Amino acid sequence: MAKPDSPVLPRSISSADLTCTNRCRSYILRDWVQQAPPGMTNYFNITPSFTLTLPPLSQYPKEFQDFVFRRIIDFTTKEDLQASKSLNWCPRTSHLVPLITIGDGNCLLHAASLGMW
């Protein structure tokens, strides 16, 4: 039980500063570029030209899809998390996969960057 004099933290970061949150959301919405032809990748204007975006892999042969997935998905961790019912336990939601990150001390930053793209 929390002490009465301890501060109560908001449930989400966006609840902490609504003015800043609304300003960030409007900036992101103005910067979003949605491609007209279906199947094209949407992007932000501020995205650097060297950012890697994977194309839809379903248009490539199964062997190539498997090759790419083996390089970016941590299948051992995925199996362990699914066995413990910590990942993909709900059949109604999209299935998630753990991505392989570089263990150089910035793995949280790498994981967040991979998750955004």
Arrangement of strands in the largest sheet? 1-2
Rounded radius of gyration (Å): 19 Å
| Amino-to-carboxy terminus distance | 39 Å
Q: What count of helical segments does DSSP give?
A: 4
The major sheet is characterized as: 2 strands, antiparallel
Oligomer: single chain
Helix content: 25-40%
Question: Globular, elongated, flat, extended or rod-shaped: what is the shape?
Answer: extended
Please provide a brief summary of the model.
By secondary structure, the chain is mostly helical. It has helices at 18-31, 62-72, 75-83, 107-116, and strands at 32-33, 43-44.
Identify the notable features of this structure and list them briefly.
117 residues, mainly alpha, two-stranded antiparallel sheet, 4 helices, extended
Q: What would your notes on this structure say?
A:
With about 120 residues, the chain is mainly alpha-helical. Helices cover about 40% and strands about 5% of the residues. It contains 4 helices and 2 strands. The protein has a two-stranded antiparallel sheet with strand order 1-2. The radius of gyration is 19 Å and the shape is extended.
